[in-house]
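1st attempt posting a full record on here, be nice pls
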Amino acid sequence: MMIDTIEIPISRTKVTLLLLVAIIFVIVGILFLIDPETFQSSIFKNKEIIRIIGIAAVLFFGLGSIFLFRKLFDNKIGLIIDHNGITDNSSATSIGLIEWKDIKRIETLQIASTKILMIITDKPEKYIEKAKGKLAKRAMKTNYKMYGSPISITSNSLKIKFNDLEKLVSDALEKRS
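the predicted structure (as tokens):
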């Protein structure tokens, strides 16, 4: 059965909100670095731990801010579902086309309040090799070790609710079978 092409755009509103949150965390991280004494409390007693948290926040959310800023001006469609498979351009670990023939099943994973669609493939190395950059490759290897697949899709930057995304992908996977 033929699958109709479905295009899900990037949500500029969601990306802008995520960017603002990331920038706030970068600022807090910088404050932790500059003046750790201010943030000492019963939870954070050690200034060095506060500094380490500051460095981690600046690095992680700084990189995230760069990605989100670029995504704000990216004109590519966030996610395309068609007869070839799923073409993902929604996150920093997006690897483009995930072919239907390589997809065994999908699973839903929830970490804190974020729901994630895990695309279970029988060719994980093929997709890890497609990763753009060392950080993306490392993240995909970690996903594979922890969750059984290097490929994950969220609706965080897409103009769609997670449950609707999950249904679209499930239905398309059934149709191609």
